[in-house]
Specification:
The structure holds 2 protein chains of 2 kinds.
Chain A lengths: L2 H29 L5 H13 L4 H17 L7 H13 L20 E6 L6 H14 L4 E6 L6 H12 L2 E3 L7 H15 L3 E6 L7 H17 L6 E7 L5 H13 L3 E5 L9 H9 L3 E5 L7 E3 L2 H9 L1 H5 L1
Parallel strand pairs in A: 1-4, 1-5, 2-3, 2-4, 5-6, 6-7
Antiparallel strand pairs in A: 7-8
Helix pairs in contact in A: 1-2, 1-11, 2-3, 3-4, 4-11, 5-6, 7-8, 8-9, 9-10
Chain B lengths: L2 H15 L6 H17 L4 H15 L2 H4 L4 H17 L14 E7 L5 H14 L4 E6 L6 H12 L3 E2 L6 H14 L4 E6 L7 H14 L3 E7 L6 H12 L3 E5 L8 H10 L3 E5 L7 E3 L2 H8 L5 H11 L2 H13 L4 H13 L3 H6 L4 H5 L6 H12 L3 H5 L6 H11 L3 H22 L3 H7 L6
Parallel strand pairs in B: 1-4, 1-5, 2-3, 2-4, 5-6, 6-7
Antiparallel strand pairs in B: 7-8
Helix pairs in contact in B: 1-2, 1-5, 2-3, 3-5, 5-12, 6-7, 8-9, 10-11, 18-20, 20-21, 21-22
The chains are: A alpha/beta, B alpha/beta.
């Protein structure tokens, strides 16, 4: 897919998100030309309705109200600019934004990625798409099937690996997931594979023993290859509400999450919870999932994300 | 389950309890706090708005202002409103007059439809029905294999055909059930986005062809504000009969339950509470409302205990209690029954007031495993006459159970205390016995 196609996909996938937030902001703006209490209250509701959460909404609203006063914004069309600005401030960025794409950093081979999250967020699908992206970029990929718990998880991952053209390492259902992870890294080291992606079973962050199991996977990977895993991705369903913060906290304390993947953005859910998470945990959103096809995973681009949410071109015209 | 919202509301109410009378100002503060609590609990903001208005209307009425214990009354007002919103009765699954009963399971991707379908099949099987599971998800890779594997675990047949269309699979499955005397057909459909026109048309077609007696919408308890949109879209298309709330064993506050009830007015019928296939509970709105308010859910606990507790053993134990002849074998029995009631944390969450404690205390299920191991390392004689256990026996028990002598000592001491208490109780001196009972504090 070319660059144009990518951009088209990205904006298409976000269209629904944008339609609702932008549409609502527009409606607010069109009805009133001045920023007053009423406009601000409606804006607050838009944010709350997008799962931004009461606390983050409060922060955003306070900052916006302050700036409206101090910088003498009166025209309500300025809300777009203000919102875009304030939201961008919350989203954490790690170093060079461009490097967050599918290009691997220099050195560190194999580059080991551990993928974690609660049940049903789309970990396996994300891994399939991620493997495909790395293959397209010319890297050799091996997937470790460390979800040895869920029925038919192996079969599902195997199909994705086939589609992506990646290798897969798996053991019988019920096997020790840490052993699968160890085998996968070992195989990658022996065969000079570029990327290792380890799938793990979905688990609720409140299950102490399952989180302990995840810690063990990380420990074992670290032991096999010092410095690994180089990336720990927490996959979040865009439909997730405020519980997402708890998820991020628990998974981070267990395996040190380094990046977020926001899936299922092709529905009407807005994924506003990532603002709070990215801000609190100081981790960037790395990818977004915008559909079920293998090429429906996009590297996250903060500017494009915020612009798409609030349609900046539209404002500039 | 729902412990977050209980904790926060308890703080609000503690504040309220400080006031002699409720004024408009302090009720406003409490309501603001409740609004935030509900929003943080993922109740849809529109529903919250309506809810707060209703509570305010009722709370500002005379009944509260003239009351001696206004805090209690506000709790009651909120509880009533919440229970009203959640619906007042529990619901069961429809049964067709001429079998098979057809149940259609639908929802978004990852909400837990396949696991729920298997749990429902097991649940109905224990109630005497003869279910057939139908794998009608031909879209997600290996979805059919997943259901087949779950079906094997619970010994329920699964109808599938990887090369057919969902509509045809479902239709043929109903036929198959009729011919093979399966009285209940559970159709597991693919997860789909409510905005995906093609996929929504597919599930509507399955409904059209199979004429289900019961359509269940499965939703993840962790869902945020969007729950109302998806529930509404599925309801518009399928007009479902009930909602299933999954993954309630996490710490999400499940505000989605309130939102969905408010928007589609359909009952929530089941709650998924664990990864095991028997971790399915009926949804009781009143209990959930009490849990939300931190009143605990003692009813569920009692019911669970009733189902799991072996009556005969209970009678036996009672007799022994009277004679104050508790042995380690009895202790082991109790321990195992406690374990079969579910995770200790679940059990604790149902005890009123425990929510506050739970914040600091994490019950370690492993500790119980160690205790079990120690008792199992005792001889039969030692179990019935603990006084036999001297130093060398203690070392042997510690070695045998992979624990330490100190741990064995602690267990013996605790056991002795228990026996002493039993003696006091059997002498009818309940009050003194209770005074002697010290709660572990660290």
């Amino acid at each position: 897919m070319g660059l144009l196609g990518t951009i088209r996909k990205f904006t298409e996938g976000l269209a629904k998100t944008r339609d609702s937030i932008l549409g609502k902001v527009d409606r607010i703006v069109n009805a009133k030309s001045k920023i007053d209490r009423d406009v601000l209250e409606q804006l607050e509701e838009v944010l709350l309705g997008a799962d931004v959460g009461s606390q983050t909404t409060e922060i955003l609203m306070q900052n916006i109200e302050r700036r409206v006063k101090e910088e003498k914004y009166e025209d309500s069309t300025a809300l777009h600019v203000l919102l875009r600005d304030e939201i961008a401030k919350l989203l954490h960025v790690n170093g060079d934004e461009k490097a967050n794409g599918i290009l691997l950093p220099e050195g560190k081979r194999p580059y080991v990625i551990l993928v974690v999250g609660v049940n049903g967020v789309g970990k396996t699908t994300t891994i399939g798409k991620l493997a495909y992206n790395y293959r397209q970029a010319g890297y050799r990929v091996v997937i470790g099937a460390a979800d040895t718990f869920r029925a038919a998880a192996n079969e599902q991952l195997e199909l994705w690996a086939q589609r992506a053209g990646a290798e897969i390492i798996q053991q019988a259902p019920g096997a020790d997931p840490a052993a699968v992870a160890y085998d996968t890294v070992s195989s990658a080291v022996a065969k000079n594979t570029d990327v290792v992606i380890i799938d793990t079973a979905g688990r609720l962050h409140t299950k102490v023993n399952l989180m302990e199991e995840l810690r063990k996977i990380r420990r074992v990977v670290e032991k096999r290859m010092p410095g690994a895993p180089h990336e720990v991705l927490l996959v979040l369903d865009a439909g997730t509400g405020q519980n997402g913060i708890q998820q991020a906290r628990q998974f981070t304390s267990a395996v040190q999450v380094t990046g977020l993947v926001l899936t299922k953005l092709d529905g009407t859910a807005k994924g506003g919870i990532v603002l709070a998470i990215s801000h609190e945990m100081q981790v960037p959103v790395k990818y977004i999932g915008i559909g079920e096809s293998i090429d429906d995973l996009q590297p996250f681009d903060r500017k494009a994300f915020v612009d798409a949410l609030f349609n900046i071109e539209h404002l500039q015209n | 389950m729902f412990q977050g919202i209980s904790q926060k509301l308890e703080v609000v109410f503690r504040k309220l309890r400080g006031y002699g009378k409720i004024t408009e100002t302090n009720i406003a503060e409490a309501l603001r706090e409740i609004r935030r609590v509900l929003l943080d609990a993922d109740v849809n903001y529109k529903v919250v708005k309506q809810f707060i208005e209703d509570v305010q209307k009722r709370a500002l009425g005379q009944e509260v202002l003239s009351s001696i214990t206004p805090g209690q009354l506000i709790i009651k007002v909120i509880y009533d409103e919440m229970a009203k919103l959640l619906g007042e009765t529990k619901s069961d699954i429809a049964a067709a007059q001429t079998p098979p009963t057809v149940i259609l399971v639908a929802g978004l991707q990852g909400s837990g439809k396949t696991t729920f379908s298997a749990k429902l099949a097991l649940h109905l099987k224990t109630k005497g029905r003869v279910p057939l599971l139908v794998a009608a998800d031909v879209h997600r890779p290996a979805a059919i294999e997943q259901l087949i594997s779950l079906g094997k675990q619970i010994e329920i047949p699964v109808y599938s055909d990887a090369s057919a269309k969902a509509v045809d699979i479902a239709e043929r499955a109903v036929d198959y059930a009729r011919k093979n005397v399966r009285d209940t057909v559970i159709i597991d459909t693919a997860g789909r986005m409510h905005v995906d026109e093609e996929m929504m048309a597919e599930v509507a077609a399955v409904k059209e062809k199979t004429k289900p007696h019961e359509i269940l919408f499965v939703v993840d308890a962790m869902t945020g504000q969007d729950a109302v949109n998806t529930a509404k879209a599925f309801d518009d298309r399928l007009s479902f009969d009930g909602v299933v709330l999954t993954k309630l064993d996490g710490d999400s506050r499940g505000g989605a339950a309130l939102s969905i009830r408010a928007v589609v007015q359909k009952p929530i019928k089941f709650a998924g509470v664990g990864e095991k296939l028997d971790a399915l509970e009926p949804f009781y709105p009143e209990r959930i409302a009490s849990r939300i308010l931190g009143m605990g859910d003692i009813v569920t606990l009692v019911e669970k205990a009733q189902v799991q507790f072996d009556e005969e053993k209970a009678v036996d134990l009672e007799a022994k209690l009277r004679k104050a002849q508790l042995t380690f074998d009895d202790f082991l029995d109790q321990l195992r029954q406690l374990k079969s009631m579910g995770s200790l944390n679940d059990v604790l969450g149902m005890i009123p007031g425990m929510n506050r404690l739970k914040g600091n205390v994490s019950v370690d299920g492993k500790q119980l495993v160690r205790v079990e191991a120690m008792i199992q390392s005792m001889t039969k004689e030692e179990r019935s006459r603990p006084s036999l256990i001297n130093g060398s026996r203690r070392r042997r028990i510690a070695l045998g159970s992979g624990t330490t002598v100190q741990e064995v000592n602690r267990l013996l001491k605790q056991f002795e205390e228990m026996q002493r208490m039993m003696k006091k109780m059997s002498k009818g001196n309940m009050r003194r016995a209770l005074q002697g009972l010290r709660l572990p504090t660290n």
